[in-house]
Amino acid sequence: MSSSISKHRVVIVGSGFGGLAAAKALRHAQVEVTVIDRTNHHLFQPLLYQMATGVVAEGEIAPPIRDILRCHANTRVLLGEVVDVDLDAREVTFETVGRRTSVAYDSLIVAAGAGQSYFGHDEFSVHAPGLKTIDDALEVRGRIFGAFELAELERPGRQRDAWLTIAVVGAGPTGVEVAGQIAELSHRALKYNFRGFDPARVRVILLDAAPTVLPTFPESLRRRAHRDLLRLGIETQLGTRVTGVDEHGLDVIGPDGSPGRIEAHTKVWAAGVKASALGTRLAEQSGAAVDRSGRVAVLPDCTLPGHPEVFVIGDLMSLGDLPGVAEVAMQSGRHAALTIVRRLRGGEETREFRYHDLGTMATVSRFRAVASLGPVRVGGVVAWLLGLVVHLAFLTGFKNRVATLARWTIAFLGRGRPERTITEQQVFARTRAL
Question: What angle is formed at CA 263 by the lines to CA 171 and CA 167, rounded to 5 degrees?
Answer without folding.
Answer: 20
